[in-house]
Amino acid sequence: MVGMNEPVLARLQQLMTLREEVETLGSGGPWIPAADWTDEDTHLILHLDIPGVSADSLELLEEGSTVTVSGERPALARLIGGDRPAGAFRRSFTFPQDVLPQTGEAQLRHGILSVRFQKRHPTIDVHAEDLDAHPAE
Amino acid sequence: MVGMNEPVLARLQQLMTLREEVETLGSGGPWIPAADWTDEDTHLILHLDIPGVSADSLELLEEGSTVTVSGERPALARLIGGDRPAGAFRRSFTFPQDVLPQTGEAQLRHGILSVRFQKRHPTIDVHAEDLDAHPAE
């Protein structure tokens, strides 16, 4: 898509992900793992719930302002009932703040994938943190 | 509830769980982890997706034909967005087949809790399994 800039591509990606999510609401469709972002002043961290997924199957693809995580876990043999998703998943995210390209460091622990990205504009708010830690009562 | 027999109690428990699930559909309500049952001839196994939950916080309660699992994981500090559930969860299950009381053995690995229960009536189907493994083509 020559000529489209990164924000437009990122928005398209978001819309495609949204459409996938709506299409699979309440059905036994594709697996879309739950995710959170946290802010650690110098880094942004993406947390993804992927219990039972092996590190070998994971792929991270960073493109401009988006990052896409994909992987899979095998379906259980001799299944007699339940609602756990299985098979392949793919989910794209737009970085909530600017990050430095290709700084992502991934770790898989207790079924949660954490990826740390270095922020382009680190937050300096030591005093604000002190205030938050001891709110006036 | 003196006088109510176990099947009735189990059914009530199921209805209560169902109501909880319906009430929290699509909302940021209580966390209801996904679960599967598998059959391993001599055992039934309950698989529960609980990434990030520590073994210390887990409780299993077996009552007649139901088993209830509860636990929690802490909310992330400095959260700036996302959809991962956090806090306490509790989910009850009716055993899909009869099990021997108090035979459950739990294991927590890669964010999945597996609990093995000994079946009251083990399945003996070696020949059927052989046929399944090599279907006529």
From TrEMBL, chains A, B:
PROSITE patterns, per database record: SHSP
Residue span(s) of domain SHSP: 26-134
InterPro entries with a match to the protein in the record: A-crystallin/Hsp20_dom (IPR002068), HSP20-like_chaperone (IPR008978)
UniProt-listed Gene3D superfamilies: 2.60.40.790
Superkingdom in the source lineage: Bacteria
CDD domains hit by this protein: ACD_sHsps-like
UniProt family annotation: Belongs to the small heat shock protein (HSP20) family.
Name of the protein described by the UniProt record: Heat-shock protein
